[in-house]
Amino acid sequence: MIEQTKSNSPPRGEAASGLVRPRRVVPVVPAAEQGDEVDLYEVRKKIHPRAVTGWFANWRWVLVLFTQLLFYGLPWWSMHGRQAVLFELEARKFYLFGWVFWPQDVVFLAVLLVLAALALFLFTAVAGRLFCGYACPQTVYTEIFMWIESRIEGDRPARMRLDREPWGPRKLAIKVAKHLVWASIAFWTGFTFVGYFTPISALGQSVLSLSLGPWETFWILFYGFATYGNAGWLREQVCIYMCPYARFQSVMFDRDTLIITYDEQRGDPRGRRGKKTDPRAAGLGDCIDCKICVQVCPTGIDIRDGLQYQCIGCAACIDACDQVMDKMAYPRGLIRYATENALAEGLDRGGIWRRVPRPRVLVYAALVLFVAIGLVAGLALRNPLKVDIIRDRGALAREVAPGLIENVYRLQVTNTEEEGRRYRIGASGLPGIKVIGVEQPIEVAAASTVAVPLRLQVAQEMGKPGSNPILFHIESVDGGGRGAAEKSVFILPRS
């Protein structure tokens, strides 16, 4: 027999798991026994979030403005005559605020990704899904698209009425206007995204002259369509069904993780009442069952049922509930940031913060600090001069004069700095070894590579027959930059 469940709120011990255990079990007759079809998937019901103001809503908009100014503005910032942030894949150069990275520097990207993942684990263990609620691109663009929707279609009741009314000229005009604005923002987002990989000024000229290349066209349309679809249509579906973070967040939660909670002891029993009604005399808690917390939730959940994996931690329900408490002249905090242990033990804010430095948090913090120090040290010690040496295998060791042996080499000298350098090339490892066949010093322009063919000569008797280890020295001669030393071998023929 199939069971239908109804739940008011979960035991506190179950909240961190993200699952809500039913409180009451009501047996019902299976639909299949009644001759009805059973749907395996629930049809999505469109959510019309209600606008909310408050401290957390203001912080969300601060993060929206900050992230979008950063995203849309960085490609237009220039340093040393080029974009400050440019990942030029075709040239295999990555410009980042005056630094130039090459494919061999991919280790720094790997370390940066590891650092970001560890930081996410740390923030989640301390304060739940802060990233999801305030800085995730899905949250940010959904917030922007919903704001546009409210400006064009009206507030929540007006949007719901508009969706219910039959299609006509008025409804068509409003919907078309909304989607045109959405599409414009999505296209500009795709254009900006591609501008991180193709110089954005040249990309803009190509767009205006209708001469975009196939790859630029594809990625602008692809990223724009993804933004339009995810933020305009899918919205909470991305967070609930597509994002893997919602599924494994409970692994990083414990009973001292700061989460959005409903104070069941204070709020229940729920019930509507007038402002002058004494809730204690009426046998009621502080929750007036207005369901404003549900109406403002972007994923459509009822936070009073306990922590659920659909909750993105945006705190809209906290702002909404606090406003209701103010109108009823009740204390704020019926819905608030707290921990399971804080609710169970009645801890105040100080007690909550005293439990932050616990083992898993300390481990995450130590790992973040260790990786961050390693990344900074690696960048500080990174040599901007890179040299690759290839001995010319097509030209074997040869005798160019009686007793004088010559080997041919090819050096790839890369200057990753944003200014040109001059270098002098020398060699050591065998007595009397000389560098010839190259005009010294060599000049290497900023962020470029120069191929330098050269020859080394040494007397036959100065080494043993076969392979002899040597060292190339590349030194800066213009008072700046750093040098490099690279190993190679010198071949002496056997007699």
Low-pLDDT ranges = 1-34
Helical coverage, percent range: 40-55%
C-alpha-based Rg, rounded: 33 Å
Mean pLDDT, nearest integer? 88
Number of contiguous helices: 16
Biggest β-sheet description: 5 strands, antiparallel
Shape: elongated
* Category by helix and strand content: alpha+beta
What does this structure look like?
- The protein has 495 residues and is α+β, with helices and mostly antiparallel strands.
- Among the domains are: 3-34, no CATH class; 55-249, no CATH class; 385-492, Immunoglobulin-like.
- The chain has 16 helices and 18 strands.
- The strands form six sheets. Strands 10, 11, 12, 14 and 16 form a five-stranded antiparallel sheet that branches. It has a four-stranded antiparallel sheet with strand order 15-13-17-18, with no helix packed on it. Strands 5-6-7 form a three-stranded antiparallel sheet, with no helix packed on it.
- Helix 4 packs across helix 8 (214-234).
- Residues 1-34 have low confidence and may be disordered.
Structural features:
Immunoglobulin-like; elongated; 495 residues; 18 strands; alpha+beta; disordered N terminus; 5-stranded antiparallel beta sheet
Write the layout of secondary structure elements.
Blueprint: E1 3-6, E2 24-27, H1 55-73, E3 78-79, E4 82-83, E5 85-88, E6 93-96, E7 99-101, H2 106-127, H3 130-134, H4 137-153, H5 156-164, H6 169-194, H7 200-208, H8 214-234, H9 236-242, H10 245-252, E8 259-262, H11 264-267, H12 292-295, H13 316-328, E9 335-338, H14 340-345, H15 349-354, H16 359-381, E10 385-391, E11 398-401, E12 404-415, E13 421-428, E14 434-436, E15 442-444, E16 448-459, E17 466-476, E18 484-492
Antiparallel strand pairs: 1-2, 3-4, 5-6, 6-7, 8-9, 10-12, 11-12, 12-16, 13-15, 13-17, 14-16, 17-18
